[in-house]
Amino acid sequence: MIMASKNQRSKPAAVWHGVWPALLVAVVVIGLWYSASHFWGMPKYILPAPDLILKEAIENPNSLLRNGWVTLVEATTGFAVGVLLAVFVALVLDSWRFLEKGMSPYLVVGLNIPIVAIAPAVIIWFGFGMMSKIVVAAILTFFPVVIYTLKGLKAADRREVDLFSVLSASRIQGLLKLRMPSSLPFFFAALRVASAASVLAAVVAEFIQANAGIGYLILTAAYTNNTPRIWAAVAVSAGIALLFYWVVTVAERKIIPWHASVDARN
Amino acid sequence: MSKVIAVGAVLSAVSFLAACGGGSSSSSTAASADPAASGAASEAAPVELAKVGFVMPWVIQGEEAGQFAALNQGFYKEEGLDVEIIPGGPDVRAGALLASNSAQFAVFNPAGIYSNRAEGIPVVGIGGINQADGLFLMCKTTTNIKSFADLKGKKVGVWLGGGEAGIQAAAVKSGLAVADVEWLPQKFSMDEFFNDAFDCASATEWNEKHVVYKEGLEPSKGNVVELRPSDVGLFLPGDSIATLESTLQEHPEWAQGIVNGTLRGWQWTCSSPENRKTAAQYVLDAAPDLDLDLQIIQVDEMCSLMAQGPAKDSGEIGGMAQTSWQQSADAALAAGQLKEPADVASAFTPTILDAVPADYRTITW
User: Fold this and answer.
1) With contact defined as beta carbons under 8 Å apart, do B197 and B142 qualify?
2) B96, B152, B171, B345: least surrounded by Cβ within 10 Å?
3) CB spacing of A119 vs B189 below 8 angstroms
4) What is the pTM of this model?
């Protein structure tokens, strides 16, 4: 009982211990920023004061929430579609070496696609609504996930592969019980990259053509010189990306707590 | 195996979240003709409407108020059309949207029509909206620039890909070569104007001008100079309704409906301050993040641009004057936007415009 209450006390302390450096950085940066805006004459069009941005967010929460929701839906849907497709393709390529050799250079090219170049074409192909933004987010999710997952599927320990072979494990058993679990750290590393990329993709696609979403909000705010709104929208977009990243990280901790990368972060 | 199931569960949860949002968001994308249906046409006979997509020149804003008025007042519906208004944007290639049949009509300026035709997309103008494109330069008086001739060696912001033609042509007409001026790509904001990164920046009559005025910079206060191509005798038409030649041949009734409805929409919009406000509100219904007051100003400026030049002389809106279109072609060529002179006569046709009922083309402004 004494032990339990001690643990309960120590948990918030541990959280505080982990969080306070980030909070300190935030306080210092916002303090400098506030001073630059109010005391050192930094003009609004370069960076509006933090309190102006907060005021915009408080006065127009509906606009930020409505557009943030659109971006969240586009990014999450694109992310989910991209990940599912990437895992499927990785499994196919992994079991078909010839196809993997043929496709590998193009996957690397795909990883480096400039989003601003493909987004207008995707809008032509998939229309003006959310679908085209979802497709752009899915494309930017697909390539890192397929490349890392494919790499992960080959990352199983040689000795374990030999053991499976000695024990006459079937191909499916080897895949499900050894190679897929071994690929998970790579898979999650890719998900973390893709989670931020999918939000960015949706925002950029909205910037090109949309009438809703964070990218649209930033464009129209810039067009009417409403800089506090631009930065409030940027904050919402960053919040969505952080939320996304956090979900992936929590999932990773639950699913592969045994892995060194998770352990180190803990 | 349980890990695999867990990964699947995470993805399913994400998909579910996405699915939750999917339904609610479809209404927040392109503005459809439904508001018109609910507003004005409950009494209309159940006729088969042709679905057409109409691409706007920019994101939804007061520049397009006449089209929204036509939609909400049921004018397109009366023409047998179910019009989907498709917002434009910085990198929306309307010509490609027409060529791929993703949309059937679009708003271009004549230079955009010429450049699409030069690329092999046979876009043809069928009706005018703005008689003047409303693009000009704003320069702070501290730059000592008083005319286009003073731009030599100066940094001038332009919207590349169409917005530069009229301004560059005005500089050329003032005795400069295009290369005499340092033309810089301008963002879709006036930031570089405010922070003096540019000596002059491009502006539209309906948006940037008022953004700058709002910051206390305007000619009446003596701190800003405005240079308009019209100062040197250049009158370039702006927003014009266009379609593909094939659409015009196969569905002239659609083209007629779009031009009739749009001109009628603008006529209705410009006819009274109340209507201009209502039209601005229609715009806001489709794009609620906009500022109503600024949109009303935009609508006022658009009505002014529609009633200028040839429209003022003829008393009719929607006209496409050969001389103005020729000036656009010359400007696009001078600016290097076109490699070869455009065939102006084939880039627009008056047939649809001539068949618009005279009642729809009068304007009270």
Assistant:
1) no
2) B345
3) no
4) 0.79
